[in-house]
Design a protein that fits this description.
By secondary structure, this protein is mostly helical. The protein is 66% helix and 0% strand. The protein has 9 helices and no strands. α1 packs antiparallel against α2 and α2 packs antiparallel against α3. The relative contact order is 0.05. The mean pLDDT is 76.
């Protein structure tokens, strides 16, 4: 067994265990931390496949931004764990059935005969092939330029809509008026009062 296969099995086992702990952990903060570990293990697998851009994007975007946001939201919200676990046993057979279907579908889609080191040749062995960053950038900004720009417009629209809905639901929000802030004088904000303090014999 080669060293690449050993490292692959280590990262795969780590990803499976950490993903399982995301589901079975009783603390939501620990689940988010295990999800970060899953992302790191998946990035290691992508590095073995010489997909450096995808691995770095997974760490920078998901671990550096999305998961930090998840942690802040989880820590700020007062989630009632007991009420969320009330229907766990009732929907357990349905969840196991869906999980079994997903495992069967993944085994059929990425099985050893369709996806593996014997079928897919790494980029370093392929002749006259540029790095995956150059290849991805070339395809993204030539063939898929319009879908890429459309995705950016949709994300911008979603951000604007989320901000609009948030401010619309808050009726007592504080508005900042720049002109009034500039015209403010210190006499309008601070009132100085002079008074004398009598001396006392201690």
């Amino acid at each position: 067994m080669k060293i690449e296969q050993v490292v692959f099995y280590i990262f795969s086992l780590l990803a499976i265990l950490s993903a399982s702990m995301v589901i079975f952990s009783k603390n939501s903060v620990k689940s988010a931390l295990f999800l970060i570990l899953t992302f790191f293990a998946t990035a290691g697998i992508w590095m073995l496949l010489e997909a450096e851009f995808l691995a770095l994007t997974l760490i920078l975007v998901y671990v550096g931004a999305v998961m930090v946001l998840f942690l802040f939201v989880i820590m700020m919200l007062d989630v009632d764990i007991a009420s969320l676990r009330e229907g766990f046993t009732r929907y357990l057979p349905f969840g196991l059935g869906v999980a079994a279907l997903l495992i069967i579908g993944l085994a059929y889609a990425v099985g050893g005969e369709k996806f593996g080191l014997n079928v897919i040749t790494p980029l370093s062995i392929q002749p006259k092939v540029a790095s995956n960053i150059v290849a991805l950038g070339t395809v993204l900004f030539t063939r898929f330029l319009y879908p890429f720009e459309l995705a950016g417009v949709l994300l911008l629209t979603a951000i604007v809509a989320a901000i609009s809905l948030t401010f619309r639901s808050r009726s007592q929000r504080i508005a900042f008026i720049a002109s009034k802030q500039i015209e403010t004088r210190k006499e309008d904000r601070i009132k100085l009062v002079q008074f004398e303090i009598g001396k006392k014999n201690l």
